[in-house]
Amino acid sequence: xxxxxxxxxxxxxxxxxxxxxxxxxxxxxxxxxxxxxxxxxxxxxxxxxxxxxxxxxxxxxxxxxxxxxxxxxxxxxxxxxxxxxxxxxx
Length: 90
Hints:
Helix content is 17%, strand content 41%.
């Protein structure tokens, strides 16, 4: 199993850092910052325009600069079985 990491930008300092993806869906992305006992989860939600995902951790805002459509395309590419209809053919 491959661990997925995504780059996020800390808005206050402009620093780019890679974080581990814990759960990824089009309506939210949960990421883990840190390792071991010092790790923390943060939920990123789409902005009002859907052009990025934003979350806050310990008063610091982090941004994943991918649109909701790009994330959905990544999900469809990674697991095409989820995209198929659950209807049975007669």
